Amino acid sequence: MDEHRDQPSRRQRRKDARPSEITAAALRLFHERGFAATKLDDVAAAAGVTKGTLYLYFPSKEALFKAVVQESVIPNIDRLAQAAASSTEPPLGKLALVLRLLAQGLNESDGCISKLMLAEAGNFPELAQFYVDEVVHRLHDVVRGILSEGIATQSFRNIDLVHTPRLIMAPLLLANMWRNTYGSFDRYPVDPAHYAELQIAMLQHGLLPSPQEPRHD
Amino acid sequence: MDEHRDQPSRRQRRKDARPSEITAAALRLFHERGFAATKLDDVAAAAGVTKGTLYLYFPSKEALFKAVVQESVIPNIDRLAQAAASSTEPPLGKLALVLRLLAQGLNESDGCISKLMLAEAGNFPELAQFYVDEVVHRLHDVVRGILSEGIATQSFRNIDLVHTPRLIMAPLLLANMWRNTYGSFDRYPVDPAHYAELQIAMLQHGLLPSPQEPRHD
DNA sequence: GTTTAATAACTGACCAGTCAGTCATTAAGT
DNA sequence: ACTTAATGACTGACTGGTCAGTTATTAAAC
């Protein structure tokens, strides 16, 4: 019986493809269960290899974790900062652009990292420091730049430049964690893109009815 | 030599005080390190007992975790709902009241739970379901009631009643998790009460300059 | 035939959970 | 009051299972 022939052959050698497959599997499981509760045997199985193979590419479980974070975190920030810088819209439009891009970035690849880092920061202080400096503060700085410009041109009122970036991005970030975590338990599905639109409207009008023109499109 | 006399005596019998001391210690450590990464020996030490004692009061580590969550979660919701119901303020004032109470509740006792549940929901589905139903949705319902009233009296524009509660509370919740997690790494201290005020102002005005009266107190 | 990616059996440290024993406290006996 | 028996809260050494990390072996690739 050669029933081992139907799958294209186990034990392939694919040195270049492995690392990203492994980190992808690890990200999913770390996010789902937490770092400590995730077994490397499970990560390996999810990546279609065995545990020994992990150690060909990553020297330890902790190193794998760091690789996961750094790999998933680098990309979208630059894209976002660049989009904001090159946009010629007025401040509010620029802000809307950033929020929509953020929602999109969270939606695809890895809005998982924010929750994962939050949960594990206590166990990995240096990594947490890196994350705060390289990701969060850079993101805040983008928004802060827009706000600052808006205040200068009197498009915005004179808001708190230190904390308002967090205030503005919090709903999107939390909505995303929410969806990734409680999605299956919740009555209403949560959609980051929808939250982006709600937040944009809120930034524009607040809760109050628009005094000049009650629009109805 | 009676040098054993200076500490009031180890090995006291305090059957009634133990459980809350244990859950308090457990909450701190679970929140700091995560459930799986927390050793019961450490919880016991932090509570001033030994591991064996834990098992006199809680049948398993998982049972301890559930006790921690349920104990920390029950109180503040009712207080908040009641305050909102008995307030005679206009909708925006009522909303401000709720946000301030929420910030206060997060600040003292246990704003830890929200992060802890977020991190462990995947490993404790029934508990997550309980938390979503009994805590989060009830909180949202309070806010939803206020919004609904505001729309009816035309104090508010016609906002999305399903999602806006989350949108409004997200900044406070996230700011709190932030402070509990990255507080020591962050440049600027995060204060929930301050975020409550920022958020109230944002709900009132949005980002835009107030068209009728540019106030400056 | 040589190289090396991949495997799987193995090891040892760690930790949740157990239990026989200890001692602070209570209360009965005098 | 003073002694002593009974109680049960508390301890800490122990165990069995689990899992990160290792290594001897296998087989794919060239």
From TrEMBL, chains A, B:
Q: In its keyword annotation, does this UniProt entry include Ribonucleoprotein?
A: no
The family database entries (InterPro entries) matched by this protein are listed as: Homeodomain-like_sf, HTH-type_TetR-like_transc_reg, HTH_TetR, Tet_transcr_reg_TetR-rel_C_sf
Q: Gene3D superfamilies, alphabetically?
A: Homeodomain-like, Tetracycline Repressor, domain 2
Residue limits of the HTH tetR-type domain? Answer: 16-76
**GO terms, molecular function:** DNA-binding transcription factor activity; transcription cis-regulatory region binding
Protein keywords: DNA-binding, Transcription, Transcription regulation
Q: Does the keyword Cytoplasm apply?
A: no
Name recorded for this polypeptide: TetR/AcrR family transcriptional regulator
Taxonomy of origin reads: Bacteria, Pseudomonadati, Pseudomonadota, Betaproteobacteria, Neisseriales
